[in-house]
């Protein structure tokens, strides 16, 4: 599949976050996993970690994140880089406007939330 459209991407909603897979194994990729990520105003994730490196690029809006022990703020065009096995808490920096990100990791990524590991369905 040389083309994977956002319009045809399945949608996964979780606590103010919407994940739409673009390049994942179910959509034709074999090494990388890429998805669009929409954050509702004020949305904040649970603290979690991944077993692979993950990169978030801000397409619109701004995000605040805690990566390990470091707090960061990322705006348009910035990238938040999360090393493997590092805790992450990601949030929309605005209580009024949505944020849009592109997330990139490698195929086969496993997330851990509250001590429970799982394969995120948007990365499959």
Describe this structure in words.
The protein is mainly β and 124 residues long. Helices cover 0% and strands 49% of the residues. It is built from no helices and twelve strands. The chain has strands at residues 12-14, 17-23, 32-39, 48-50, 54-60, 63-67, 70-74, 79-82, 88-92, 99-106, 111-113, 116-118. A six-stranded antiparallel β-sheet has the order 1-2-3-10-5-8, with no helix packed on it. The protein has a three-stranded antiparallel β-sheet with strand order 4-11-12, with no helix packed on it. A hairpin with a 2-residue loop joins β6 and β7. The chain is globular. It starts with 11 loop residues before the first strand and ends in a 6-residue tail after the last strand. The mean pLDDT is 97.
Task: Explain briefly what this protein structure is.
This protein is mainly beta and 124 residues long. 0% of the residues lie in helices and 49% in strands. A hairpin with a 2-residue loop joins strand 11 (111-113) and strand 12 (116-118).
Point out poorly predicted stretches: none
Structural class category: mainly beta
The count of helical stretches stands at: 0
- How are strands sequenced across the largest beta sheet? 1-2-3-10-5-8
General shape? globular
Share of β-strand residues: over 45%
| Average pLDDT for all residues | 97
Encode the helix/strand succession as letters: EEEEEEEEEEEE
User: Span from first to last CA?
Assistant: 15 Å
Helix content: under 10%
Rg (CA only):
14 Å
How many individual β-strands? 12
For the sheet with most strands, the description reads:
6 strands, antiparallel
């Amino acid at each position: 599949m040389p083309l994977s459209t956002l319009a045809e991407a399945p949608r996964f909603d979780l606590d103010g976050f919407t994940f739409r897979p673009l390049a994942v194994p179910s959509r034709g990729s074999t090494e990388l996993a890429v998805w669009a990520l929409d954050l509702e105003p004020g949305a904040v994730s649970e603290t979690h970690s991944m077993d692979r490196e993950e990169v978030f690029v801000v397409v619109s809006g701004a995000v605040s994140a805690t990566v390990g022990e470091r707090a960061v703020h990322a705006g348009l065009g910035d990238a938040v880089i999360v090393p493997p096995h590092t805790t992450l808490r990601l949030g929309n920096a605005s209580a009024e406007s949505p944020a849009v990100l592109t997330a990139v990791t490698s195929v086969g990524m496993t997330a851990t939330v509250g001590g429970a590991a799982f394969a995120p369905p948007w990365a499959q």
